[in-house]
Amino acid sequence: MSQSIDLPKIDTLAQELATIQQTGSKRIALLGSRHVPLTHQHLIEMMSYALVLSGNRLLTSGATGTNSAAIRGAMRADPNLLTVILPQSLARQPQESRQQLEQVMHLVENPGNDQLSLAEASSLCNQEIVSRCQQLICFAFHDSRTLLQTCTEAEDQRKVVTLFYFD
Predict the structure, then answer these.
(1) What Å distances lie between residue 50 and 24, 57, 91, 105, CA to CA?
(2) Cα–Cα distance between 65 and 56 in angstroms, integer?
(3) Which residues contact 16 (CB under 8 A, 6 or more apart)?
(4) This prediction's pTM
(5) What's the distance, CA 141 to chain centroid?
(6) Rounded to a whole number, what is the distance in angstroms from the first to the last CA of the chain?
(7) Do strands 57-60 and 160-165 pair parallel, antiparallel, or not at all (unpaired)?
């Protein structure tokens, strides 16, 4: 009796191994849920700080929670290595996010998405972020549909994806 085993293609494994072993700087996207305990936010901030301090370019979005923590860490390490891509215009962002976002040097707004729901705009924003990165680090809950879809899309594009679950 033979069983079919679904193994990744050799070229996919080689590409992932090369990305992991790359010693130069990488473009790393760090995305995650808005609903993050403060302790986890501190860990995410330290991670983004270390990634940027190591010379990596960090891409994220502008939401509170995970993305805000990533921005704080990157800004402390080297603001020039941070790019924040917003799902909509800066004016559509919550007031508590705007103060932080106004300090970001490389801020990309998407005012063309202002008429979309936040979920639709976030999905498009995440697609843009994934298209610009080599690796995705994502912090999500098991029911975070938009984030989990983003991880699937990143894997389909053969990006290295590291997914952490809060629950």
Answers:
(1) 14, 11, 30, 19
(2) 21
(3) 158, 160
(4) 0.86
(5) 15
(6) 39
(7) unpaired
Instruction: Report the pLDDT averaged over residues 55-68.
Output: 95
Which domains can be identified in the chain, with CATH numbers?
25-165 (3.40.50.450)
Q: pLDDT tens, 16-49? A: 566 556 667 999 999 999 999 999 999 999 999 9
* Residue 72: HSE in the Cβ half-sphere, 13 Å Cα cutoff: 16
CB atoms within 10 A of CB 160: 20
Output the average pLDDT for the chain.
Answer: 90
Instruction: State how far the Cα of 105 lies from the Cα of 46, in Å rounded to an integer.
Output: 20
Three-state secondary structure readout of the chain: CCCCCCCCCHHHHHHHHHHHHCCCCCEEEEEECCCCCHHHHHHHHHHHHHHHHCCCEEEECCCCCHHHHHHHHHHHHCHHHEEEECCCCHHHCCHHHHHHHCCCCEEECCHHHCCCCHHHHHHHHHHHHHHHCCEEEEEECCCCHHHHHHHHHHHHCCCEEEEEECC
